């Protein structure tokens, strides 16, 4: 598979499609639609503070969270880009209670892909000019083409994903994704609106010295997590590690994938299932982590093996450099 640096994303998609002789080009069109919507949202994010895109919209979403104007804007742009290109038969989003079926009961509609999306990740950082992101996950439907998509199509274990990725709107805007053949990162050249292959074959370093967790919740964490945080802070061997927490999953995960580190959003006495959503936050990041030689667990089990039961279910999430996640698991297992 070609990883020529400074390849544009468009060239990379075409070049790598030819690696799959039976490919219909649908997945390429889908990634292209996401690329387009990412540029539109990036443009709006960069104007935050200048245009009326900061603050709440005055509605709450299914999670009971105040919806930010940019949450709603990003949701519309990604859904529109996918619907207008007639390449998916169903979409589920953090910002919508139910999934959307797209003419899926029209037998002429031969589309086989569904998309799950967190249109704007790190919403609490929008108004304070800290990097935010978008997360997406793609599956083949399991119900027959030409029949209505059902909840079953969305409640697939993460290991069934055919593609997953994220966009980080930070000091530069990057699109990072996998189709199960490694992870590649593309940086947007804003002057010409083109994504270039800047980070070929991204890999988590085997270990690192960054731990990422909202320590404000420390007293509510279970003993295994508390012990691991103490282990990270202990003056011993290559420790203490350094603590970094942006509060945007995409940005925290991205930094740790480049530098080596572990991200933790544990369950606690106040959030029994943790905070992050399995289907459009944890599964796509877990697919990327594993494709980049990292690990992603939710306590005992591998995130990608978890069989979902609800569209917006939450799950404890631990992901990052292999050796650090394995060490954390040792601490968690002591109390399981
Ligand atoms: O403020 P907390 O509790 O530490 O939570 C931060 C986490 O919540 C999130 O903002 C949840 O995602 P959304 O912003 O998409 O709802 C993650 O990006 C982030 O890692
Ligand atoms: Mg999110
Ligand atoms: Mg979100």
TrEMBL record:
It catalyses: beta-D-fructose 1,6-bisphosphate + H2O = beta-D-fructose 6-phosphate + phosphate. GO terms for molecular function: fructose 1,6-bisphosphate 1-phosphatase activity. Keywords: Carbohydrate metabolism, Cytoplasm, Hydrolase, Magnesium, Metal-binding. The keyword Metal-binding applies. PANTHER family: FRUCTOSE-1,6-BISPHOSPHATASE-RELATED (PTHR11556), SEDOHEPTULOSE-1,7-BISPHOSPHATASE, CHLOROPLASTIC (PTHR11556:SF35). Belongs to the FBPase class 1 family. This is Fructose-1,6-bisphosphatase class 1. It comes from Pricia mediterranea. The lineage of its organism: Bacteria, Pseudomonadati, Bacteroidota, Flavobacteriia, Flavobacteriales.
């Amino acid at each position: 598979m070609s990883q020529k640096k400074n390849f544009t994303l468009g060239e990379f998609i075409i070049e790598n499609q030819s690696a799959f002789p039976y490919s219909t080009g649908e997945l390429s069109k889908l990634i292209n639609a996401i690329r387009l919507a990412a540029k539109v949202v990036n443009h709006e994010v960069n104007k935050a503070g200048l245009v009326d895109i900061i603050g709440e919209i005055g509605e709450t979403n299914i999670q009971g969270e105040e919806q930010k104007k940019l949450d709603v804007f990003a949701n519309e742009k990604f859904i529109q880009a996918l619907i207008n290109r007639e390449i998916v038969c169903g979409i589920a989003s953090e910002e919508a209670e139910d999934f959307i079926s797209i003419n899926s009961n029209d037998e002429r509609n031969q589309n086989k892909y569904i998309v799950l999306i967190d249109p704007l990740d790190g919403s609490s950082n929008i108004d304070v000019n800290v990097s935010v992101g978008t997360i997406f996950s793609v599956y083949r439907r399991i119900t027959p083409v030409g029949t209505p998509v059902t909840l079953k199509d969305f409640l697939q274990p993460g290991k069934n994903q055919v593609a997953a990725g994220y966009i980080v709107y930070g000091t530069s805007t990057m699109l990072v994704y996998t189709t199960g053949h490694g992870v590649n990162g593309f940086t947007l050249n804003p002057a010409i609106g083109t994504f270039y292959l800047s980070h070929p074959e991204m890999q988590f370093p085997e270990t690192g010295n960054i731990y990422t967790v909202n320590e404000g919740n420390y007293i509510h964490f279970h003993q295994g997590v508390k012990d691991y945080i103490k282990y990270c802070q202990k003056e011993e061997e290559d420790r203490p590690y350094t603590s970094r927490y942006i509060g945007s999953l995409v940005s925290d995960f991205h930094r740790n994938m480049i530098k080596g580190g572990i991200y933790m959003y544990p369950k606690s006495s106040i959030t029994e299932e943790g905070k992050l959503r399995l289907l459009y936050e944890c599964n796509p990041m877990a697919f990327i982590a594993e494709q980049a030689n990292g690990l992603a667990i939710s306590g005992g089990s591998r995130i990608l093996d978890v069989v979902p039961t609800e569209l917006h279910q939450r799950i404890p999430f631990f992901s990052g450099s292999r050796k650090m996640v394995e060490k954390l698991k040792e601490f968690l297992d002591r109390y399981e």
